[in-house]
Amino acid sequence: MMPVRQAPSRRGQPKPQLLAATLFALVAAGTALPVQAQTTFDVIGPHEYDLPVDFKPFNVFVQYAYLQRNKRAFDSDGDRVRGSDSEAIVGLSKYVRFWTPDFNRNIGLAWEVIVPEISIRNDRDNSHASGLGDPMTGFAIWYKPRPDLTLGFQSFLQIPAGSSEVSDKNWKNLSSLFWDWRLTDKLGWTADAGFVFQGDRTDDIRPGHSFHTNHRLGYRATPLLEPFLALDYERSKSTSTVDGGHVLDGGIGLMFHTFDNQSITLRYSHSISGENHSVNDSFNIKYAYAW
């Protein structure tokens, strides 16, 4: 249950510049023009929504991190052009409380808090911005119509309370449906589809609402190793101040089931096609610990 992306490019700006990215959400460096980068919720792993019902309460801490290099970007014609040459290192720290309500043991509930840590560097113009991004909090609810299938809904509020250099300076709601289908005893598909709704920023930029969907297909090759394929898509609407855009990303990864209550997931993602969007060229890591 997670996300990440950035604000769209200004109208008429042919080459978007990178800002910062958050998990599940949108962030921007106050010193640069806004631009789309990571796709919302593209941090999810191959078992992100493989969730139980009728269980005792437990806790999970997740640390996401990724390195994104913005050497290329898609222009308004979908062609690849020179990007901002900036580099973003983003961490996302998440705490989740899971429980099953007594009134219905056939559903599961979760409440989570997410805090982004952001660092953006651009050697071309010798600039740097860093700090804590806008925090997020929200809930998830799900049920299992059958043992191999999970269906759910999640909604998060992102609060413009991050460090001034990296806050996106507006409120956001990220709501999506999610599902997990264990196709066989080794093959699984986990995915989501939803929308990001945004308020106006304090700098008079009006970001457009966006749709996103994220998919992970994993194969449990051994008790330890699970290679997987990733596919992420996002489309944002244009407004009076920013151009709309879209992007399709593909990726490959490997999940290490290290212990019963811990896992490590590695992934590389790269953009396949897009418009008015940075070309994704990112290395991603996820560490999860449950107790």
From TrEMBL:
Xref: InterPro entries: FApF
Signal as UniProt keyword: yes
Keyword Signal belongs to the record: yes
Residues making up the signal peptide according to the UniProt record: 1-37
Keywords: Signal
Stated name of the protein: Outer membrane beta-barrel porin/alpha-amylase
Provenance organism: Azoarcus indigens
